[in-house]
Design brief:
Helix content is about 35%, strand content about 25%. The protein is α+β, with helices and mostly antiparallel strands. It has a single domain (about 20-135), classed as Yope Regulator, Chain: A (2-Layer Sandwich). Residues about 1-20 have low confidence and may be disordered.
């Protein structure tokens, strides 16, 4: 009897996926128009001049991903110290926005599943990619918060 009652109750409870409002490309484009000045492009691929930075927003519905990106500056890929600094920042100072290197350019990149992206996620993403780009060369941080530095202990010693 209990299992029948439980099964009946479970059938009436909405799944977590049902509680998340789905975003479609047209609605996302309208939201971007409100959030980003000078937005240009077409559904799925937009760009805007954002102060001193060029902002790119890409949606791939097939991959269910949205990427918000700023090209920060060129990089000499032989500069191992800078590459290590970027990787280290991705570990403890760059939170949702991360550093990436593509075509000898440092990028500030936020990536998220498109179908669960909320307006708060978008606001956070725009803020963090801007701040990470702005802080390149100084704090290498996407927010004022960061994880405490973790010391790795080698058990083989």
């Amino acid at each position: 009897m209990f299992s029948l009652v439980l099964a009946t109750w479970m059938a009436t409870v909405p799944l977590a996926d049902d509680l998340v409002p789905r975003v479609d490309l047209a609605a996302f484009g309208r939201l971007l128009q409100k959030k980003v000045r000078n937005l240009q492009g077409q559904p799925g691929l937009w760009k805007a001049r954002d102060g001193k930075f060029q902002l790119f927003i890409e949606v791939d519905e097939r991959l269910n991903r949205v990427r918000i990106m700023i090209p920060v500056r060129p990089i000499d890929c032989d500069d191992k110290q800078l590459l290590l600094t970027l990787l280290s920042a991705n570990f403890d100072r760059a939170l949702e926005a991360k550093y990436a290197v593509n075509r000898r350019m440092i990028w500030s990149v936020f990536s998220h599943p498109f179908d669960t992206l909320t307006e708060a996620d978008l606001d956070n993403a725009l803020k963090q990619v801007r701040q990470l780009a702005e802080n390149t060369g100084t704090t290498f941080s996407s927010t004022n918060n960061h994880f405490a530095t973790m010391e790795v202990v080698d058990d083989d010693d």
